[in-house]
Design a protein that fits this description.
The chain is an alpha/beta fold. It has 14 helices and 13 strands. Helix 1 crosses helix 14, helix 3 packs across helix 4 and helix 7 packs parallel to helix 8. The longest helix is centred in the first third of the chain and has 23 residues.
Length: about 350
């Protein structure tokens, strides 16, 4: 299979794209790939380092605050459309896949106009602007959350889940002792994303000392940008601070409770691995989509949500302490998460992509 795939800007788009690539490689080892991404975002480093052929285009999102910058955006969009038509025509793919981010707009639109089959994947509950615009240019859409099905065309939308969830299931459980944790104690894993996480980290600096003397342990993955500030203070012996943890789903498998943002990939892993969670959505994202993502779990009693504006003194400590000691509630949350789970997301996506390719042939 010859595949062009495009996704950009954030790991929430890039890692699902990689999960799709990995599944296609597993099923059809002789497949050839071309990844089209932006020239200045994280995919320009991640994708070539994975040994995947990469082409970059200069493209930007529209700027609501500085409207004059949008003249450059429109100019780049026209050039990107011309460039992608040339790239697609030369590669001659069997399928063109968009996995989110504004870079996908000229790629999917050009592919459809050139007569190629197109597939879109939406990670969030609330479809992003790029995907909403591209609906008319795609043959099939994969939705991660059941609630998305009401916002997308029923005749060409299927529930696939997020392909990152399938990758998470394959990870081996982490060794807690390797990073100084006790195998015999419950673990609360706290992970904050980079976007706006500084404010939550400031809050946690004072909140973490309240866990002193508890029978369970806390592992706080601060993110590299917040680590130095957070680590300046001394914490109780049952609280461990690290800047980063490679292969986070492995540690999630050893966790009894997680405190996290509501990025689509993270929530897909929480659902897949059945990890009870306290979700603090970032208020700094477009269309408040993290809050909407979190609602999918909260409405099913599969998670607890605290909005950032409600993080007053003791709120997080009391919420965590109550939950971690309530075995019945933890069990209920796990059971409700299992009802939301799509274990074979990447497999479903592959099968439907394969069907589109076979229809073409």
């Amino acid at each position: 299979m010859r595949v062009i795939i495009s996704a950009g800007g954030t790991g929430g788009h890039i890692y699902p794209a990689l999960a799709i690539i990995n599944k296609i490689k597993e099923k059809e080892p002789d497949s050839e790939f071309l990844y089209i991404g932006t020239h200045n975002r994280m995919e320009k480093d991640i994708i070539p380092n994975k040994g995947i052929p990469f082409k970059s285009i200069e493209i930007y999102g529209f700027n609501k605050k500085h409207l004059l910058k949008n003249f450059k955006t429109v100019k780049c969009l026209f050039k990107a459309s011309k460039d992608t038509k040339k790239i697609i025509s030369e590669f001659k793919p069997d399928i063109v896949i968009g996995v989110g981010g504004y870079v996908t707009v000229p790629v999917i639109k050009s592919a459809k106009k050139l007569g190629y089959k197109t597939f879109l994947h939406e990670q969030n509950s609330l479809p992003g602007k790029s995907n909403k615009y591209l609906i008319k240019y795609c043959d099939l859409i994969g939705a991660s959350f059941p609630s998305s099905l009401d916002m997308l065309p029923k005749d060409k939308t299927i529930l696939t889940g997020n392909p990152c969830s399938e990758d998470a299931l394959k990870k081996a459980p982490a060794s807690k002792t390797e990073i100084g944790l006790d195998d015999n104690k419950k673990l609360v894993l706290i992970v904050m994303g980079s976007l706006g996480a500084g404010r939550v980290s400031d809050y946690l600096i004072n909140e973490l000392e309240k866990f002193k003397g508890k029978e369970y342990e806390i592992l706080f993955v601060t993110g590299k940008s917040s680590y130095d500030k957070v680590n300046q203070k001394e914490y109780p012996n049952n609280v461990k601070i690290v800047p980063f943890y490679e292969g986070l789903p492995s540690m999630m498998k050893r966790s009894d409770l997680m405190v996290t943002r509501a990025g689509a990939s993270t929530l897909s892993e929480i659902i897949s691995l059945g990890v009870p969670s306290v979700i603090i959505p970032s208020p700094f994202v477009a269309n408040n989509h993290q809050y909407i993502n979190a609602l999918d779990l909260v409405k099913k009693d599969a998670a607890v949500m605290i909005e950032e504006k409600d993080l007053k003194e003791n709120v997080l400590f009391e919420t965590v302490d109550k939950l971690i000691n309530d075995e019945n509630k933890l069990k209920e949350m796990k059971e409700n998460l299992s009802k939301l789970r799509v274990d074979n997301s990447a497999e479903i996506i592959y099968e439907n992509i394969k069907r589109l390719v076979d229809e073409k042939n």
